[in-house]
Queue: 3 jobs
Job 1
Amino acid sequence: MNTYEKDQKNVALKLHYDIANDDFSRAGEASSKIKKMLKQLAIDANIVRRVAIATYEAEINLVIHSNGGNIEVFIKSDCIEIYVEDCGPGIENIDLAMTKGFSTATNVAREMGFGAGMGLPNMEKMSDAFIIESELGAGTNIKMIVRYET
Amino acid sequence: MEKTYWHSVVLEKDYCNGCTHCLDRCPTQAIRIVDHKAKIIESRCIDCGECLKVCPYHAKGALVSNLDIIKKFKYTVALPAISFYGQFPIEYEMNTIYNALLELGFDEVYDLAHAAELLSVYENSILDKANLSKPMISTYCPVITRLIQIRFPALIDHIIKLEAPMEIAARAIKKRLISEGHESDDIGIIYITPCPAKVTSIKNPIGLSKSFIDEAISTEEIYYKVMKIIDKVEAKKRLQISTGKGIGWGRVGGQSYAMEIEDYIAVDGIEEVIKVLESMELGKLESLNFFEGYACVNGCVGGPLNVENTFIGKNRIRKLTNFYGMNEPINIDIELIPENMEWDLPIKPMPIFKLDKDFKKALEKMSQIEELTQKLPGVNCGACGAPTCRVLAEDIVNGFAKFEDCIFMKKDKGGQGYVG
C-alpha cells in the first residue's frame, strides 16, 4: 500500500473536520476534539498521544500552508487511520519538505511560533505507516496509520 | 472497577439554590444540577475547590476537623502549611505565631517550610539521575496530580514521585516520637490546611499506602484563634527554622526557585495549567526541565481555606523569603534518602471519562453522542443540569439524563420553553 487511498472497510467511527486556512485562532481545535474523543474511548494513552500529535501537526499545516482542507479520522478495531486532504497549493519537493527544520512558513506564521519545520517529520514519526502525495497546483494528500499494537 | 474516594469537598444542600456557577467552573465536569441542587459525581471530583471558591451561596464546604480534635490524642504536633506564612500581618513574627499554636494546645509545632527546603535539596540531587521524560512535573499540588491521572495519563511518566513536605515531616516526626516512647495511637499529627485537596490526600494518599498525618484543620479556623491571643504570646521556643528557600514554596514558582532550576515554568490557576498540560501532551515543551503547576491562583497561598487575599499573601511570602534569606545554609536533620522522601506506590491513570470498558460499546456510544450533540442547541446554558450540551449527550447515552431535559427541546415539542 504505497499509494494514497481511503480504506473504507470496517470503519467503526468516522470523524470529519474542515480546516480553514489562516484561521490561527482556531488552529488546534479539531485535534483537541479528536484527542478528547479517543480518551473517552479508553484507547491507550500513548496511542492517543501519537494521534493527537499527528492530527495537531496536520491541522497546523492546513492552517499555515494550504488553501483549506479537511482531516478525517477512521477509528477501526485494530488501528486509527488519519486522512488529510487539501486543495492546494501542493508541495514542490516532498523529500525536502520531509526534512527536519525545513519550512516555507510565512513570517506571520513564524511570529506566532509556528513554522519550525517539524510538522511533517513529526507526523511521520508518530505513525506506523505514512503516505504523502502532492501535486503542485492541485493539493496534498496524507494518510497515516496508528496501530494499537505493533 | 469504580473506586470510590473519600472527598473533602462537599455540598451543603440547604444553601444551594441550583444556580450554574459551579457547573461551568468544574475542570472535570463532575457537577450536575439535579432537582434544583448541585450534585458532585464523586468518581470525577479531584477536590480542587474551584466550586467552593465560586459559589455565591457558600453551599460548598470542605470536610475538616475543628480544634477540639486535639483532645482525641495524648500528644499532638501541628504542621502548619507553608502558605501559613502569608496569612498574618507582617508585624507578627512567624516564630511568635508558631508559639501561639502551643498556647492553643499543641505539644509541638513543626515548620513545614523546613521540610520543603530539605526536599529542594533532595530533589535537586536526583533530577539528573531520575529516569523521567522531560519536563519533569512537580507533584506538590495534589489537584494537578489527580488531574493528570484523569485527563493526561500520557504525562504520568513525567511526574517526580516525591512526597509532599507535610508527609516527609509527618513520617520523620512519628518515627522520632515512637522512638522516644510514645504509643503510635496517642500521637496526633495535625495538618493546618489551606486546601481541601490536601485533606483528601491525607485520607486517600497518592503514591503512599497510608498517610502519617492523622487529622486536618483549616487555616481559617486556626487563624482567628491565633489572632485572639497573639498579643499576649511570648515566643519561648525557637520553632521557625526554615530559610527563605522553604518559605518560597508557599507561592507559585518558589519550588523551582529554591532548586535553582534554569529552564522551568510555574503555572497557577487550573485552567491555565490545563492549557499547558495540553501542549505538553503534544510534545511542545520538551526543552523545559521542570514544571510546577497549581490549581489555585498564586499557588498554595491562594488556597480556598486561607484567610488572606492571595495577592497580599503572595507579597508577604516574597518579603519573608528575602527576610529569612535565600543564601542561608540548610540544616539537614532528616536523612536525604529515598525512604524518607519518595512515594512507595506507582501512580496509575484514572480514566474516568471512558464511555465503556468494551471498545465496541464505547464506539457505539460515541456515535450516539456525536449524533445527539448535533441535535442539541449548543448554547451550553446549563439549564438541563449538565455543564455543556455535549455532556448532556453523554449523560443521555449513559442513561443518566433524558433528551427532554433540554429546555429547548421541550419547546420544540410544544412545551413552554423558558418560563420566567
Job 2
Amino acid sequence: MTLLGQFSLWVALLLGLWAAGMAFVSPWQDRPEFAASAIRSAFGVWVALLVAAVCLWKGLLSHDFNIEYVAAYTSRNLPTSYVFSAFWAGQKGSLLFWAVVLSTFGALAQLTTSRRYEDLLPYVAGVTSLVVVFFISVMLFGGANPFERLPFTPPDGRGLNPQLQNPGMVIHPPMLYLGYISITIPFAFAIAALLSRRLDTGWIHAIRKWTLLSWLFLSVGITLGMWWAYVELGWGGYWAWDPVENASLLPWLTMSAFLHSVMIQEKRGMLKRWNLSLIVASFLLSLFGTFITRSGVIASVHSFTQSNVGFFFAGFLFVAAVVSFTLLYTRWPLLKPEAALESMASREAAFLFNNLVFVGIAFSVLWGTLFPILSEWVRGTKITVGPPFFNRVNVPLGILLLALTGIGPLIAWRKASTANLKRQFRLPIATGLLGGGVLFAMGLHDLYVLVALTIAGFVLGTVAQEFYRGVRARMRMHGESVPMAFVELIAKNRRRYGGYVVHVAMVIYFVAFAGSAFKVTKEATLKPGESTTLKSPFGHTYTFTHLGVSQYTAFNRNVSAASLELALDGKKIDVIRAEKRQHVDSFGQKLFEPSTEVGIRSGLREDVYVVYAGSVSGTEEASFALSINPLVWWVWFAGVLLVIGGLVTMWPGGWAPAPVARRQVQAGFAVTLVESEIGTATGGEG
Amino acid sequence: MRAGTKFFIGASIITLGVTMLIVQGVKQTGVYFLTPTELVERTKTDATFYDYGIKVGAKVVPGSVRRNPKAQQIDFRVSDGKNEFPVSYHGIVPDTFTDANDIEVIVEGKLGHDGVFRATEVLAKCGSRYEAEFKKGKRA
C-alpha cells in the first residue's frame, strides 16, 4: 500500500506541475486547449491524492507498524476513531491531509463556479496546483513522507498523545486546516483576476461563498481549539495568546475585514486594491500560521517538533509574497476606485473604520507574536510579550470594534441624514445605557467590563430593532403572521440577517470574555471527608467535599479518579470526578506521562472546574486546583450561533424566490426584491 | 472639509492609537527571555536582574524534580549545559512536565539573591511528543 501511496504522490506532483505550466502558458500562447488540459490535470492531481490518502488510512486502520507514521501515532488498543484521526495528528500525515483537501477544494471550485467566470478557471487550476505541488514537495523532499517504512516492525505502536485523545481534537485540527486551506481558493481567484486583468467585481462574486466558508471554518476551528484547551490542558482558561493560537486568529481577522470591505466594492466600486491586498494577506497569514506550527521558531505548547519543514514554508511564504505583491503593483492603475467617500456618516466610513480596527488588531497580534524574534534581531536580546500585552492592546480595540458592529449596519450608504441617524440610534443607545446603568447599580464597577457590556447592550439593541422593523414591514406588506414574517424575513435576506445573527454571536463572545475577568480560584489539599468552600462571583457559596480516590483500568489506560461532592449554598447538587490517567499500550507498557482529566460541571452562569493535581504518596489525601469560571458556557453557545448565522448567510438559492430575485442572486447581488422593499423602509440594506 | 480628509484624520487617530498601545504595551509588559548562562552573566554585571521578572528557557536536570503534592510545591533544577540553578514553583505543572528525558521548559518568575528562581509559571515542551523516537531507532 505504501508503494501505491508513494507512487500516487509522484503522479500528483508531476500532474500538478503540468497543470500549472499549461495554465500559465495558455493565454500567452493563445492556446485554449492548454487551458483545458490544465483543468483536467488539476482533477488528475485530486484523484491521485485521494488514492494516496486512502493508502495512508488503510495503513493506519490495518495497524501496519512497519510504516513509521503508523507506529509513531497509533497503537493496537487505540480506539478506532482516534486511529482514523491520527491521519492528521502528526506532521507528515497533516501535510498529506492538507494537499488532499486543497486539491478537493480546487476541484469543487472548478465544478461549482459559474460559467460566467470561465476564463478565470485555468488560472485558478494553475495556482491551486502550484500550492498542492508545494505541499507534495515538502513530503517527498523535506523528509516528511508519511509512507516511509521502518527497517523493522515494532510489535505495537507508540500510541496517540493522551491530550489528543479527545473528541474536540478529532475535529478541531481539520476544521482549522479547512479554514487555512480554503483561503487558497479566493487567493487563486484573486491571482487569476490580476493575471487576466479582469478586475471588475466579477472575481469577487465568484469567491463570495468561498471567503465565507473559510471564515466559518476558521471560526469553528478556533472555537473548538478553545474548547479543547479548556477541557484538556487543565489551566482553567481557553485562550492564552500562545503563538499558535495567535497564528489562527490572524487570517481570521483579515478575512473578517474582507467580508465587510467587499460589500463596499460591490455597492460602490471602491477599495479594489484594499480587498485584493486583504485576500493576499489572508493567504500569506494562513501559510504563516502553518509555518509557526511546524517550524518551532517560536516556542509554543502546540507546535510540532522543530524540523526543516519550516524552512520550506518560510521559502514558499517569501516567494508567494513577492509574486503576489509584484502582480498587484503592476495592475495598480487598473484598480482605480469608481467612487469617492461622500460622508463620514455613511456605511462606507463605518466599514472603513471597522477594517482599520481589524487590521490594527491583526497587526498588534502579529507584532506581539514575532516580538521575541524581532527584538533579538534588533537589540540582540529576546524579549517576549504575553497575555498582559495582548489584553492591554486588544481590549480597547475590541471594544471599539464591538461599537462599530452596532453602528455599521444602521447607517445608510453614501450619506445618512441627521433625522435618519436619530431614528436609527435613539433606541439602541438607550438600551445600552439602561443595561450599563442597571449593571452599575447592581455593583459592577470594573470600567472596561462596564463599557464593554454597555456597548454589547447597544449592539443587541440595534439587531433587535432591525428584526422588529423588518418583521413589522413584512407583516404590513404581505399580511404575514409574526413567526412567518420572521422566518421569511431571514430567508429572503439571508446575507443581511445571517450577518446579524453572527453579530449577536460576536456580542455573546465578548460578554463571555468579559466574564473571565471574574474568575475565582483556590488550591486545596483534602483528606477523604474534608471540605473546602469557594465563593462564586455571583455571590453564592460552593462547598467541595472530598469523597476519596479510586483506581481502575479502562481499555487503554490506568485511571485514578478523585471524586468531590459539590454543594451549592449547602444543598448537594453534583459529584465531580477529576482523573489522572496513565496510558498504556496493549502489552501494559506505559505510554507518555500521566495525563490530567479535568472535572467540569458546566452551567449557564458559571462552570465549576476541578483539577486533580495528585495524591500524597500512597494515601487518598489529594490536592486539587478548584475554580469557578463565569460565563464560559456562552463561549461555546456563541460558537454554535455563529455557525448558524454563517450557514444562513451562505445557504444557496431561495426557498421560493421570484424569478427576478433569483437572477439577481445568481448575478451575485445581495439585493433581492424583498430586501430592497424593506431597505427603503429602514433606510439601508446590507 | 471633504469626507476623504475627515476619514484620513480619523484613520490617523486610530493608527496612532494602535501604535501607542503597542509601544506602551511592549514597554510595560515585555519580559526578557534568557538562557541560564545569559542570566548569570547579566546578574554579574547588573544587580537589577535579581528580583526582576524574566523568562528563562532551559532543560530540566534529569532526576532533580521534587514534588510535594500536599503543598502543591515543585522544586527542580534547570540547566543549559553550562549554568544551572534551582527553581521553586507553587501550583500545578502541565502534564508534559517530567524529569525523564531532557524536557525543555520555560519558567517565568524572578531570580532571588539566594540563587533560587521563584517561578510564577512553568511551561513544558515535550520533545518526544510528536516525532523523533523512531527516527533515532532507525539510525541506530
Job 3
Amino acid sequence: MPILSLIIFAPLLGALGIAFLPSSRPSLVRFAALGISLITFALSLGMLLGIRGQSGEFAFSEQLSWIPSFGITYHLGVDGLSSALVVLTTLLSWICILASFGPIQTRVKEYFISFLILETGMLGVFLSLDLFLFYIFWEIVLVPMYLIIGIWGGADRIYATIKFVLYTLVGSLLMLVAILATAFSHQAATGSWTGAFDLLALRGTITDPTLQILGFAAFALAFAIKVPMFPFHTWLPDAHVQAPTAGSVILAGVLLKLGGYGFIRFAIPLFPDGAHLFAPLMIALSVIAIIYGALVAIVQTDLKKLIAYSSVSHMGFVTLGIFTFNQQGVDGAILQMLNHGLITSGLFLLVGIGYERTHDREIAKMGGWAVRTPVYAALFGFFLFASVGLPGLSGFAGEFLVLLGAFIANPMVAGASTLVMILAAVYLLYMYQRVFTGPLSPFLKGLGAKLTDVTPTEILTLAPLATLIVIFGVMPTLLTSSFAKSVETFLMSAISTVGQ
Amino acid sequence: MSNELLTLAPLITVIVGAIAVLISDMVTPNRNHAPVAVALAALGATAALLISQGGSSASALGGSYVAGPFVAYLGLLGISIVAITLLIAPAYLAARNYPTAELAAILLFALAGAIILGAATDLVTLFVGLELMVIPGYVLAGYAKRDPLSTEGAVKYFLLGSFSSAILLFGIVVLWGAAGTASLNGIATALASGNASAGLAVALALITTGSAFKIAAVPFHYWTPDAYQGSPTPITGYLSVGPKVGAFVLLIKLFVIALAPLAALWIPVMVVLAAATMTLGNLVALTQSNVKRMLAYSSIAHTGYLMVGIVAAGAGEAAGVAGVLFYAAAYAFMNLGAFAFLTALQDRPGATTQLSDLAGLGRKHPRMAILAAIFLLSLTGIPPTAGFFAKTYVILAAVQAGGPATILAVIAVLNAAIAAFYYLRVIVYLFMRDPAEPAVQVAEGPMLRAGLLIAAIGTVALGLAPTPIIEAVIQALAT
C-alpha cells in the first residue's frame, strides 16, 4: 500500500471534496476539514508504527517514472527524521484546523481548502527524495500560505504576505537553478539522465568544486530564508503578526522546519565541501540570530512579535547544531526543531486565544490577567517555561545538546550562545510578569465578562502539545533513538571530501 | 505531383478554410456563428491532416517547403491558438458591433503564414511565411476602427512592423549574397567553411535588428504596449501569442540553423538583449495599474525568457530549441487564458481593465477568479503549472550550455521573482480586497467558457504531465 502517497494526498483529496460542499453550511465544512486532517494524522501514526519493521535507509519507498526524458521520478521515502516531522505536521494541522473553528468566520470553505492544500505541500517536502519533486512541493507551500495570510490576516496583511512570498521566491528560484545545474552535471558525468534528480543517486557524486560552492550557496540561501537565519529573517515578524492564529502556528511549527530539514536532507549531503567551506559563516550567522533575536524580543511591545523574534533566536540553535557536524549538535538541532514546533505552536495558540477575547496584543495594555483567567495563565506559564528551556520540559534537551555540540566544535561559540539562555529567560519572564501578574489592568477590566477563561475546545488544542512536551522533556531519547540512524547517515554524508 | 499536394494539404486546407469563411459570411450575413463554425471545422481538418502526416517528413515546392514533425508541432500549436481566440472573441466583438467573420478569415490566413514559416527551408519562403503571418496582425490591431487607441496602435504596429520587415529583408538579401545560397542549411555549410566578411557582419546586424523588432525585444519593443492596449482584448491575446511564437520560429530558422556557425558573434548580443528584455519588461510591468497593459509588458518579459532558450541553442544545446518550443506552447495556453479572463470582464463596451476593477472578484465569481489565479500563477512560474515547467526547461538548457547562458539563467530566475510581485498583486485584488462598487460584470457565454476551459486544461496538464509535449518537441527536432 503506498502509504506515503496516501498521507500526502489525503488532505488534497479532502480539499477537493470540500470544494463541493455548500458554502452556506460552514460547520459542515469545518468538521469535514477536521475529519480529513484527523485521518491524515492517523495515517501518519500508522506509518510511524510500521517504520520499525522496514529495513534500509528509507522506508515505504515509492518510485514511479514521471518525466523520463530528464530522469525525473516520483520518488518518496521516509526515515526517522522525516517521519518525526511528518507526524509533527499532521498533528499541528488538525490542531490548527480545530483552533480555526472560532476565529475564522469569513470565507470558511476557502480557508480550509487552502489549509489542506498547505498540508499536502508540507508533507510532500518532507517525503520527497527526488529534487524536482521536492522543489514542486516546496513551491506549492507558498501559494496557500500566501492566501491564508493575505485573506484572513490582520490590517497589514497584504504587505506582509507579499513580503513573505517574494523573500521565499528569490531564494527558491536560485535553488532551482542549482538543482538543474546539479542534474546536468550528473547527466554530463554519466551520459544519461537516469537518476539526475534523485537524491540518493546524487549524494556523494558531485565532485566539481565550483558546483559544490555555488550549489551549496544557492540551496543554503533558500533554506536560510525559510529558517529564517539572520539577516534574512525580516519577513518573519511581519508574516507572524499579520497571519491568523493558525497561520502563525503552522508557520512557526512546520514552515520554518522546512528550512532546517532542507539543510540536513539536501544541502549538506549533496554539497559537503561547500557546506564545510561555508560552515564558519553559517555558525556565525546562527550565533548572531540567537543573540539578536533574543535582544530584539526583549523590547517588543506586541505579544506575537515577541514570540516571532524568540523563534528567530530558537531557530538559530537549529542551524548552529547542524553546522557543528557532530552527533550531539545534529541530534540537538533536530530535537530543537521538533520541540520548537511543539512549544512555539502552543505559545502562538495561546496568544491567539487571548486575542480572541481582547482583540489586542499590546503588552503595555495587559496586566494581572491571571486574576481573571487562572487556567489560561497557568497554561501560558507552562509553555513559556518550556520555551525558556526549563529542565524536565522538552525545550531543554535540544538546546543543551546543541550547546554541547557547539562546545566540542568551538567553545567560544558555545559560551556566547549559552548566555542567551539567560536572555530568553529575561524576555519571556519579563513579558509574563507584565501580562499576567499584578493587579488587573484598566484595559482588561474594561472588557468585563468578555475576558473568559479557556474553553474545552481550546484545551483540546493545547493538551496534546503539553503532553508531548512533558514526555519528550523527561525522555528525549524516545526521539533521539528514532532518528539516530538518520543522524548517522547524515554525518557520514556530511564528511567533506577535501581538507579535514 | 499528387505527393506534393498531399504534403501541402494542411496549408491548402487552411487557405481554403479562410476563403470558405468569407463565402459563408456572404451567404448568411450577420450570422456570427456560421463563420466561426466553418473556421473551427477547417482547423479540425487541418489538425487531422497534420497528425496523419505525423512523423514522416516530405518536401514540396522544389524542396523549399519541408513538412515534418516540426511543422506538425507548430501547426497544431497554431491551431490551438487560433481556436482559443475564435472561442473567446465572438461575444466580445458582437457586444461592440464588430464583425466576427473577418477575424476568423484573417486568423486562418495568419495560420497559413505560420505553417509556411515552419516548413520553410530557404530565405525567400521564410520571408513570405513571415509576412503572411504578420500582415494579418496589423489588420487585427486596427480592428476596432472607431476607437482612436486601436487605430493608433495599429498604425504604430504597421509602421514599425514594415520598417523591421524591410531591415530584415535587407539583411536576408545581404546574407544570401555573402553565402551564395538561399537555403538555410546551405548558408550554414557555406558560413562554416568560409571566412567572415564585412558583408556578413552587415547581414548579421540587420537580421538581428529586424528579428528583435519582430519578437519585441528591448529596445525594439516600443510598438507592443500601444498595439496591445489599443486592440480589442481577445485580439490582444492573439497578438501577444501568435505572432510572437511565429517570430521565434524565425529566430530558430535564421539564428540556430542558418547562422549557427556565427554563434560566437551573435550570442553576446542575444544575451544582452535577453537580459534587457526581461528586466525592462518586468520593471515596467510593475508600475502598471491597468491589467491589460501590464500583460503587454509582461509579454515582453516572456520574450526575454524565450530568448534564453535561443542563446542556449546557439551554444550548441539542442535542449534550447526544445525549451523554446515547449515554452511557446505553455505561454500560448496561459497567456490566452489570462486574456480570455479579461475578455470575460469586458462584457460591455467601455468596461476597463484597471486593477481596482478586479477587487473582490473572488467573492462574486469564485470559479472565474480561480481560473484567473491558475493563469497568473503559471505566468509567474509556480509549480505545478505549465509556466513553471517551461521556465525550468529553458533554464535547464541554459545551465547545460554554460558560460554566459548560465548567468542569463540566474538573471531569468531573479526576474521571475520580480514578475511574481505584479502577477500576485492581481491575485491580491481578486481575493484579498473588498468588492469594487459597482461590482464588475462577468460575461460567460458557452464559447468563452470553452475557451477558458481549454486554456486552463492546457496550463495545468502541461505542468502536471509534460511528458507528451516533451516527447513531441524532441521528435519535432529529431529530423
